[in-house]
Here is the input.
Amino acid sequence: MIKSLRILTVLAALFIAAPSASAADIPFLTWENGKQQAIVLGGPSSSTEWKMALVGENTKPLVFKASTKNSEGFYVFSIDLPTDLTPGAYRIETTGTDGKVSVVAGVQVKQREIYTITEIPTDLRLLAILFAIITALYTVVRSRKYSRLIFARDVKSEGTHFLYRFRDLRLASFGDSFLRYLALRDGEPLHKLNKHLWSALPWLSFPLGVYTAVAIQFDAAIPNGPLYLLFICAIIGALDATSGISLAFGLGLTHVALGNVTSLRTLLIAATFTLAWYLPALIGSMVHLTVPRDFGSDADSARPAGGAISAIAAGVFGSLAVVISVILTDSLVINRVADSLLRWPLALTVGVVIALKYIVEGALVNSREESALKEERLYLARVVSPGMALTLSASLFAIIFIWTQSYFAAFVGTLVIATPYFLLFLVFPRLAMARLESAKRSLIIEAIVIGALTFGIYALIQLLPTTVIAKSQAFILLGLVPGLLHGVYSVFVASSEHVAGKRKEEAIA
Here is the structure.
């Protein structure tokens, strides 16, 4: 690719210098829509005033963006071709400082055949920003401000049946882990609405997952089947994460039994594809539990303030996990992409379901007598376990290696992205700083800031005078540095809070 760009550079420079060029002398390129394409122009006398556009019949010209100038005076002009750009013949026109228009290349645009995320920076950017936001949520939640979690749960009914007792005891078997608590909190709206459905839905979901695995085509490792079925699975998972996990197990085990999971890539595809069935609800549960603390809610109250706001926030942040799931799946499948309805329309649907279930639950809680409710409490000592951090690291390493085919990029990328999760269960008393003992943390604000900084790094990298793949690899290595720095900052805050808490305990004793 570098060689072809150099050839194109020489030809383009000649065309710009020459008064005119015959059609036979113009290079002809073949591009796929939905990807970022680049062309190199310039020379010792080049100017930043050059303009370049992709022009076609009955199509609004698409303007290229110029990078900074390299040491030889050349610029890389790049353009993100829309996925819906009509295939056909186009031409690349340059406009010089004197206003003269020259045709420097012909382009045949065709439908995208290969999905390579390093050639689709818009998707890579979106994935990195969303992942940075989710990571920021975890790093903020470790703060002492959010350590005492509580919600109001319906008391057990008399004469509960086997399925109810099984699920209730199964959740209790996880102990006081954060994951168990999130699953318990997430299922509570359904528990309040109908205890029989709450008890039976995970059992009904497993065979539905099996049926979904049989109904969809896993041809060339691409989950492709009836959209309504995939929406049903995602909606069930949004209502109840435990049932979503049951769905995922049903689909995964069936594909293993059918011999469709034959490599690490296909295993990762099955895993990322089903993330949309339970991760949004768990993220939503965490947000709904913690956001009220930003509005001054009493940590000892099971009826926190800001119920509607926390419900909407839970839906918004939960929906982001759907987009992460779809992009990850597309990036691993390569030969095809998921239907466009499985990105934003599905994310919107899941987000609305998550928000509505908490709003409905709020109405149900207000209608209950105090005697019908009990408080479920958790002191959050650790946000993630070492096992979860290791699993995430191994998955990230495999995914980035599939993207880049580079062990170095996979190692460094994993180091940058996964380190904040390892920092979540570490405290260093020697790092304590008195000024940070009472640091004001805000879940939503800090997550938005980290997402914005990640976008800023992407914008700066896009100015580099290099190829799209090189830019993408640089972004994989550097894009999530704000998240890493945020994780380090959270270690300082947590360490300061830990030391301050020890001092108070000693003073009381």
User: Anything to note?
Assistant: Residues 7 and 40 are 9 Å apart (CA to CA). Residues 1-24 have pLDDT under 50 and may be disordered.
